[in-house]
Write a structure and sequence with these properties.
Length: 146
């Protein structure tokens, strides 16, 4: 996310990347001609490259996050019931890690383009989904067997 916030405005405006959050208040120079809402060719190239990188890193994280605990659950515990739960949760962990890399990159795009309202709406939606998911898990009760 921070990389996207720093690089997208800089490349779009042909300036050197900045490490300051204050300088990344939006990318008005990234918009092609005055009055247009299209991103410049440079901005689109950076955006595509960064999103591709996020997908690749997310895939690596997801595979490692799912395979490590899934294949070697006893590395984390000697308790057989806990190891079984780790194996059951491993695919979900992998899926979350895959989506996370893309999510933070897209969040960075929204911040870089000055669209904090959309970020706030997404945060509220995510919070509602997570709260509902945890409420469902809580209602189901503990899954570990004794």
């Amino acid at each position: 996310g921070q990389t996207m916030q720093t690089l997208l405005p800089a490349v779009a405006s042909n300036n050197a990347p900045s490490s300051s959050l204050d300088s990344c208040s939006g990318i008005p120079d990234a918009i092609d001609p005055v009055g247009s809402t299209r991103l410049s060719r440079n901005a689109l190239l950076v955006l595509r490259t960064m999103i591709g990188g996020a997908i690749a890193l997310g895939a690596i994280d997801g595979v490692l996050g799912a395979c490590g605990p899934g294949l070697f659950p006893h590395f984390f515990t000697s308790d057989a019931s806990v190891a079984r739960e780790i194996q059951l949760a491993a695919p979900l962990v992998g899926a979350c890690l895959f989506v996370h890399a893309l999510s933070v990159s897209l969040e960075g795009v929204l911040f870089a383009t000055g669209d904090a309202k959309t970020v706030a709406k997404l945060y509220l939606g995510n919070a509602a989904v997570v709260a509902a998911a945890f409420a469902g898990v809580r209602a189901r009760g503990p899954t570990l067997t004794s």
